Structure formats: C-alpha cells, structure tokens
Amino acid sequence: MRDVAIIGVGLTKFGELWDVSFRQMMIEAGARALEDAKIDGKQIDAMYVGNMSAGQFIRQEHISSLIADHAGLVPIPSTRVEGACASGGLALRQAVIAVASGIHDFVVAAGIEKMTDILSGQATGALATAADQEWEVFVGATFPALYALMARRHMYEFGTTEEQMAMVAVKNHQNACLNPCAQYHTKITVDSVLKSPPVTLPLKLLDCSPITDGAACVILAPAEKARKFTDTPILVAGTGQASDSISLHSRASLTSLRAAREAAKMAYKASGIEPKDVDLAEVHDCFTIAEIIAIEDLGFCKKGEGGKVTQEGETAIGGRIPVNTSGGLKGKGHPVGATGIAQAAEIVQQLRGEAGKRQVKGAEIGLTHNVGGSGGTAVVHIFRRGD
Amino acid sequence: MRDVAIIGVGLTKFGELWDVSFRQMMIEAGARALEDAKIDGKQIDAMYVGNMSAGQFIRQEHISSLIADHAGLVPIPSTRVEGACASGGLALRQAVIAVASGIHDFVVAAGIEKMTDILSGQATGALATAADQEWEVFVGATFPALYALMARRHMYEFGTTEEQMAMVAVKNHQNACLNPCAQYHTKITVDSVLKSPPVTLPLKLLDCSPITDGAACVILAPAEKARKFTDTPILVAGTGQASDSISLHSRASLTSLRAAREAAKMAYKASGIEPKDVDLAEVHDCFTIAEIIAIEDLGFCKKGEGGKVTQEGETAIGGRIPVNTSGGLKGKGHPVGATGIAQAAEIVQQLRGEAGKRQVKGAEIGLTHNVGGSGGTAVVHIFRRGD
Fold first, then answer.
1. Which of A218, B5, B38, B231 pairs as cysteine with B223 (C-beta 3.0–4.6 A)?
2. Rounded to whole angstroms, what are the CA distances from B239 to A65, A277, B110?
3. How far is B178 from chain A (nearest CA, A)?
4. Tell me, which fold does domain B4-118+212-226 have in CATH?
5. Cα-to-chain-centroid distance, residue B335
6. Residue ranges of the alpha helices (H) in B84-188?
7. pLDDT in tens, B348-377
C-alpha cells in the first residue's frame, strides 16, 4: 500500500445559496481544488462523491454521472457513496483506498448537499431518514430529539451543563467568524444560546447545526508524486471506519459512540499517532453535545470531562487541542454530504499554515471525525505534514 | 494487488414481496450467502451495499448502518454506494478493490431494492431521478421514453425490428422459467410482446423490465484463502467502470453506450480475456433494446447486428454466447440496486456448474454488464473458474 497525500482543496461558500444550483456548486468546489493542486482535469483518474440525499432534496440520484459529466471528466469511474452525514468521510476513505492500492493515481474526493431547495420542515424529515425509519422516525423522533436524549444522559451521568454545551456553540461561531467560507459570521454568547428557542430540550436552536448548501473537494495523489504539484503535501496518515446500530435503543451507552471509538482506534493504529500527538481536530458537532462526546471518544480528554475542558478553553484556538477551527458544523454550516470533505479541507489548510486568522501555530498533525446519523457510521482520518 | 474470488452467493426470491420488509430481504440474501460460503459472520471484515434509492422508496437512507446492525455485523465498516441501476455493480467493484488491495480479507458485496412499497406511478418517478433532473425529467422524460429514443435510432441506423426486440423478451422469459428466484415463470411469445400495451413506442409493456423487490449478496475472499471455504472458487478476473454524460442529448451516439464500451475495455484488458473467450454473459436488459445494444458494445457481435444475432438464437442457452441465462432484468426482475450483484451470483452459479436446468455446459468464463440510468454509469466484471 502506498502513502497518500492531499494536493489540493476547494470549497464553495457555505450557506443558503439560493442562486446556485447543485451542479454549479460541485463544479465551483472542484475547479478550486484543481486550481489549488495546479493539476489538469485530464489527469484525474477517478472520483468519489459523498452525498446523503440528493434524491430527497433535489429529486436527483445518479449524481456521480451528473458531476463527472458537468465537470468534463467523462469517462472516468465516478462513484457516489452514502452514509448519511458521514457520506463525505466515506468518499474520502474510498478515494484513499483507491490511491493507496495503486488502482488509481489522482483521485477526487468530493462532497455536496443542496438542502434549501425544499421547505425547511421537509429538510428535517429528509434528514430523519438517516435514523431508523421503523423504530425511531415512525414514532416521531427527529435528530434533535435523538441527540437530546444523549445530552440528557450525559448531563445525568457526568454533570455536564447546558452552559457547557452552549460554550461549544459560542466557540464555534467565534471560529466561523474567521472563516470566509462559513455560513455564519455572527458572534453569539452563552446567554443567547440559553435563551434561544427550544428545539428539543435541553437542545435549543443555537445548540443545533443549520440547514446548509455547500460543496467541498480534495484531490489525492500518491505521496511520491505529490511534490510535483505542491511544496506542502499533506499525508493521510491513517483512516478508520466503523458501524454501529442505526437506532439508539440498541446501544450499550448513550454517552459515547462505539463507531467513533472503533474508527478512531483503527486510524490511530494505522498512523502510529496517539491522541496526545494531535494538534487540532475537526469533529462532528451536529449538535453541541456531539462535540463534547466526540472529544471524549477521540481520547482528547477523559470520559465525562468534555464539557469541563470546553469550559476551560482547552478546545479553543490557542488551547491545548483546538477543535473545529473552521467553525465546525455549527458555525461553518452542515451541508451533510459535504461535511466530511470540508473537515479534511480545513485540516489541510491548517497543516499547510494557510488558515489565516484561525491558524493553529505550528500544527503538524490533524484529525477529522465524521459521524452518520446518531452514530450508526463513523469515519476518522488522521493527517500530517509531509516531511 | 491480490487475486480475488467469490466464495458464496445468496439471493431472495425476486418479485412483489408484500410480506417481507427491506431489512428482512437483506438478511435473507446475506444469510444464504454466508451459508453458501460456509463462513461465519464474525469473519466478515467489511461490507459494500448497492442501493439506488431507499430514500425515495422506503424513506430510509443510511442503509449501510441499518444492514450491518440487523445482520449482526457491527462494528465493521459498511458503505452504501449508488450509481442508479448500476449500484450493485459498483458495490461489487468497491468490494473487489478492498480485497485486492489487502485492506480487507472477507468482504460482503450486497445489493437491494424494495420498490413496491410506494404507488407504482411514484416508482417510475423515483426511477426517473437517475436521469438528468433539469434537462430530461423536467420536460417529461421517463426511462421508457429515453430507451425508446435509443430503440428508434437503432431501428433507423441498422434496421433492427420490433420483432427482434421482442425476441429478447421471449428468450429472457424462457430462461426465467428455469430460475427459481425469478419474478416471472411465464413463457411469452413474439406476438404477445408486440400486442402488449404501448409504454413509449416502439417499446411495449413486455419490452420493459418490471418493478421488483429483491436482494442479492456475494462474499469475496483473497483467492489464496478461497479454497478453505469452497472447492469451486470463482475468480474475479477483471473489473471495469466508466461514466458518461447523464443525459442523452450530450452523447455522440444513441445506439451505443460509451460508458459500457470503456468499462468493458478496462475489464478485458485487466483480465487478458477477449469477447470471443466469454462463455456467457448477464447484461443489463432494462429494456429489450438495451440487451441488443449491450451485446454489440461488449463485442459479442458486430455493431448493428445485435437484433440479427438474437433472432438467430446465438444468445439463447445452447447458442454461441448465451445472454441472461438467469432471465435477465426482464424475466428475473430488476430490483435496481440488487441487479448488479444478482448478475454476479448467476455467473458464479453457472461457472460452478450449479445452474440446474439453465446450465451452460462447460462454462469457464462469464461476464456481467450493469448500467446506471441511460448509460451515465457502467460496470463490467469478468469471472472465471479457479484453476
């Protein structure tokens, strides 16, 4: 197996993009990634696209062909992969496997979701199809409800507070203000989070990531060829993926995601990197409680102390382990299929030293943590600067 | 890269399965494949599932987690791949890459679609999302309409007749009568095809594959470990995948699928096998004209002679190159995400000599041809008996 590097990244602006279509968004992110890598489209050998549900959001399946077509990449193999909100991470992992195995050299890993072309109530319904249709959705559960159960249990077991959860949102909005691509450039306060409208208590509106349009793209190459394109190739040091029961009621614990722990274990083992070596991480904060659980599952703090370390500023830029410097799903926005790729793009920009005002000084090793549904799928990648 | 073998196959009955749910179907096919391979579920390292649109058909995305969960395979990596009706073929190809690369040893490639849980008019609408939503579906095109355009052009360019197309359906229904899993066990005649209700002329009802529920599963292993499980491992000799424009109007030709030709070229090259070496093939006869185009694209006859060789019986069991011995999409049924895997299962059964009354004598090499949409995606696999 060959070492794999990322040689280019590209993103659209994240937000409510009323004047841009699905296909335009993907072309925009893709063109930026090609430019960034200084590679010609003709050199691309294959493409993997993460997308949760264009079928429901814009009545378009078969987007792998649509995108290859509109990007002028026909007849390369183009494959859509889906694992709910982890679709982007899955696309990246398949692309890494394709390059590592030697089947392809230059591979695009992309992610996209156009979520605002249906009524917002319908968006929540479409997203709920990532949960168990027979055992959760049928009886009325939506994603805020499922994560609210996790939050309640985390509060009960570990004394995590609503204020600590709010601090995740405050930090991530603050980081988003430093990210030109982010959906929100609005600072918020703990007080405004606590007073925001209830969604499913204890989760309020500002505990929840938004409905977002966006696309993201990274370009992978064999490490030995990466320096022809860039002086700062970023190596994919490890990749991990795992599954868990799709529904909450089958799990041993509500306060930890087994799939995330297993995926992290796999990625740590593959890379020889330990949690203490990681300089920064992009984690799946679809709800504020999810970031708290994520940093525990990834080994950045002890179980139950995710709220406490957030409160103490350890996950802020300048803290011990900066988390979601991009603004995360909460501040940057969460176009579900694009999120896993956007996370990788942020880590690449950070490890290159190109993250502008949100730069983590001297960052050498970064991690992404991408979750599908309430934890039925998780993908973890670890990246490091090429030597 | 390691050689890869199929060590087990399993299918559900194909048809209108009113009393079986999506998850039950998948478990049934999977359990049969495990039994067939005499492998324990605990040994399975990863899973790829092809599915076109559970989101639209049963309002359930994230089926990768659902299936791993209900199959008791948690926490293995489980990934859904989608390329419209080529989803199954894509799942198989990803599984082959995973085993060939050495990342995993024992990998499940599965495919499933539950299509009858919505009104049949809605099924046609859901299937249409595999075409270009903006340039084809919006103006009223459905898949019968798109393939009718191809049929008209094939008739115009090569003199192909409606009778010749009907003969594809007659042959495939005849084969389906010999396949216990098939949806239809009904012989039809050229006359009954010609007199069946018009769908989009020149295509009549009996030129079209049906709406079907079904699931299929194959289990892959490194070739060097395959003999521990079976005396007749079937090797994956070559795999090919390609894309084309999603919409018909962008193509140079309506009478040939570029993606299929490119995918076939890739698979032939990888395997060192030529069209004349192939003993039998399962091809994507979503409409009768599609089989005629397929056998031309695959090099089994000269361009334009697909109708003629069908008429002459060359593609029948006992003919020069038996095509769709399973009954094909027309007779066996077409649960879209399952089709690519079911094709592989048929070839495995034939190459093992276990195809019962539809057995092609002395079959050593078989091919599968799986198409997404009107040809935006194609996947070709070539299989041969292990030495």
1. B5
2. 18, 40, 16
3. 33
4. Peroxisomal Thiolase; Chain A, domain 1 (3.40.47)
5. 9
6. 87-101, 120-128, 143-158, 162-176
7. 999 999 999 999 999 999 999 999 999 999
Residue B274: exposed, middle, or buried by beta-carbon count in 10 A (0-12, 13-18, 19+)? exposed
Look over chain A and give the mean of its residue pLDDT values, rounded to a whole number. Answer: 97
CA–chain centroid gap for A257, Å, is 16
Q: Please tell me the distance from the alpha carbon of residue B248 to that of residue A60, in angstroms, as a whole number.
A: 16
| CATH superfamily of domain region A4-119+212-226 | Thiolase/Chalcone synthase (3.40.47.10)
Catalytic residue among B85, B181, B208, B286: B85
Which of A77, A250, A258 is closest, CB to CB, to B75? A258
Pairing relation of β-strands B203-204 and B198-200?
A: antiparallel
B219 in Cβ contact with B236 (< 8 Å)? no
pLDDT value at A120 more than 90? no
Q: Is A164 exposed, middle or buried (0-12, 13-18, 19+ CB in 10 A)?
A: buried
Q: Is the whole model's pTM more than 0.90, yes or no?
A: yes
**In the block, which residue shows the tokens 């968004």?**
A25
Chain A, chain B: beta-carbon pairs less than 8 Å apart = 199
* Chain centroid offset of residue B58 CA: 21
Terminal-to-terminal C-alpha distance of chain A: 19
SS3 content of chain A, % helix, strand, coil (to 5): 40, 20, 40
Any idea where the domains of chain A sit in the sequence? Answer: 4-119+212-226, 129-209+236-385
In the chain, the amino acid numbered B290 is A
Residues of B in contact with A62 (CB under 8 A): 82-84, 129-131, 246, 372-373, 376-377
Characterize the bridge pairing of strands A214-222 and A4-11.
antiparallel
Nearest-neighbour CA in chain B from A321: distance (Å)? 28
- Domain A129-209+236-385 is classified in which CATH homologous superfamily? Thiolase/Chalcone synthase (3.40.47.10)
Number of helices (H), then strands (E), in chain B: 14, 11
Rg of chain B in Å (alpha carbons): 19
3-state class of A310 per DSSP? helix
Q: How high is the pLDDT of residue B3?
A: 97
Q: Kindly indicate whether the ipTM for this predicted assembly is greater than 0.95, answering yes or no.
A: yes
Residue B240's pLDDT is: 98
Cis peptide bond prior to A77, omega within 30° of 0: no
- The residues of A annotated as belonging to the active site are 85, 334
Is B85 one of the catalytic residues? Answer: yes
How far out from the chain centre does Cα A19 lie?
24
Query: How many other C-beta atoms can be found within 10 angstroms of the C-beta atom of residue B318?
Result: 9
Using the beta-carbon criterion (under 8 Å), do B243 and A98 form an inter-chain contact?
Answer: no
Superfamily of domain B121-209+235-385: Thiolase/Chalcone synthase (3.40.47.10)
Is the model's pLDDT at B203 over the cut of 90? Answer: yes
Interface of B with A in 246-275 (CB under 8 A): 246-247, 250, 258-259, 262
B53 touches chain A (CB under 8 A): yes
Question: Is-same-fold flag (B4-118+212-226; B121-209+235-385)?
Answer: yes
Distance separating alpha carbons of residues B336 and A378, to the nearest angstrom: 27
- Got the DSSP string for B307-363? HHHHHTTTTSTTSSS-B-TT-HHHHH---HHHHHHHHHHHHHHHHHT--GGGPPTT-
